[in-house]
Design goal:
heterodimer, A: mainly alpha, MetI-like fold, three-stranded antiparallel sheet, 3 strands, elongated, B: mainly alpha, 14 helices, 0% strand
Chain lengths: 366, 329
Amino acid sequence: MERPPQAEPVGVARPAAGFWAEAWHRFRRMPLAMTALAFVGFLAAVAILAPAIAGTKPVICRYKGRLYAPCLAYYHRDWEPVIFATDKFRGEYPRNLAEKDPASWAVWPLVFQDPYRAVRADEWPGRPANPARDAGRPSRRNLFGTNQSGVDVFAKMVHGTLVALLVGFVSMGIAASIGIAVGALAGYFGGWVDAVVSRTTEVVMCVPTLVLILALLAIVEKPTIWKMMAVLGLTGWTGISRLMRAEFLRLKSAEFVAAAGAVGAGPGRIILRHILPNALAPVMVPITFGIAAAILTESGLSFLGFGQPPPAASWGSLLNDARSNLRMWWLVAFPGTAIFLTVLAFNLVGEGLQKATDPRLREARK
Amino acid sequence: MIRHLVRRLALGLVTLVSISFLIYGLIRAIPGTPLTVVVSQTDPSRRLNPADLERMKAAYGLDKPWHQAYFVWLGNVARGDLGRSISRKAPVAQLIGERVGPTLALSAGSLLLTWLLSIPLGLYAAARSGRPDERAIGLVLYMLYSVPTFVAALALQVTFSIWAEGTPWELPLFGMTSGRAHATTAAWLGDVARHAILPLFCLTYVSLAWYSRFINTNLQEVLRQDYIRTARAKGCGPLRVLVHHAFRNTLIPLVTLLGLSLPALLGGSVIIEQIFTWPGMGRLFFESLRERDYPTIMGLTLMFSVLTLAGQLLADILYAWVDPRVSVE
């Protein structure tokens, strides 16, 4: 009571910063959650470094006196240096580099295999072509085997990691933005805003998710992963919005909100600066679980044949290949394990986050 | 109570109309119509000539803009007519009726198995909370929960239909029966049961993991209550405390779950039914979406939505019924 008034903002800001530091401190002491987080980090590294792990284009090469990084083509087709197109490499680097510039050198990816096509005979001097049909069991050259058209499963999986993670993060990012915005508005303003939002949420919730997703995907006709993310984002926000609305309803009558209003803060400032930071912790958990769910849905849709068309590298599409020939067990085992571990990791991180941020569980622990 | 129910029903009706309007608009926006998609798939030479196409469009009401066609459909539904399937040439209600049985066989079986197994599992986990065996069970269940059903289904198919081929362990790959004529009903039932093992397992393991965790968490919460301490203090044995005092109170949230599982009971699972070509509702939905069979998609969506809303209402009513502290209002 006797504290000088200017000390107040400092006192308000500090516990907000301390909350996440404290949560991180608790999170770090959970070995399972930390292992899962490390695995997510590993996946992110694989996703980003995919062209350096498996590919048929050099990571870095010196050609006709200049340095190039043709592997960038795996991120975006237009990023392949133009000189290799004008010199008619046609994607076959090892032989062309040696023939067209004997003084050239190159740093190759760890595994010389392509995620989009089968490696041909002698493409790498002295190496046979990839086995096609059902002959491509896992071997020294094809660690995880090959699919029916002879494309290396390991390369497909390494490059598919980026797809899986992007789908998880981007679609949940879209869903979280919609859910937080809509839920915050409904909870704060109440009245007709709340009525409209709640009805809409209920409508979207009552339509079976798969019905909505399949219908939306059928409308966009040629699904790319970006359209898939948009569809998953547009259908997955309802849970977050409900939770956010409840948090806002709870917090808007809190004393610090009344204080902010008394000082003259407008609704925008109160929502963004005062309530939102305090309401964010509970929605972080469903967001993490949502990432797992989005990865699961994407691979499920690709598995059903609703994903990106064939040459695309998605874990689910490998499982779809397996359906036409179940004798190729490696098309089930490796992508299946990858999807399982990824979903498990995100679920464990979510669980850890829940334990670390939920004050009720924290007290129960003691 | 009655007033509340009437209000809920009226709101539910509004929700239903909005859902069906939304879905009708969506499916009419999908490229291709039931007439063009099905015919071009079967045989390109048998494609309809333009005059016939127009005639058929008019016959099925596809010549009208979708918002007009929607109200025609809505009017028919209000009169109890779900319409006729365009690609299957049969009333939608009859199609749904044919598919309910197989779906119910799977989902009711799975629900029953889940309850029978998850309650003892949850009780066991709560009784041995924190011990190594409980942690091991918990971890296994948690991992099971993260196994995608389609991965599990494929792995089971590879194991039991391909690797176990010719052994007594071999199980049928897909379908509901092997298609042969059966001498007795018992033989037919046995055949269906053999076909149902794999899909039933896939449907059960996820919900088993979820339910037993749910029961365990609720039990843990109840076990911290004062009246449990009182029961222990008067000298109740641990088993009696767990079953008689604690478990009965965890039944309240369980009962609401029963209501919420209503849509899954009749709605079926698209992915599992698709993998095992089980002739149920999920597969019907998947096929009718591919055939752009508007009346069937609408009929199924309407059914799913009604079930979801009814399930929520049922959950609330059950909750008020089992817990005197809660009223439906």
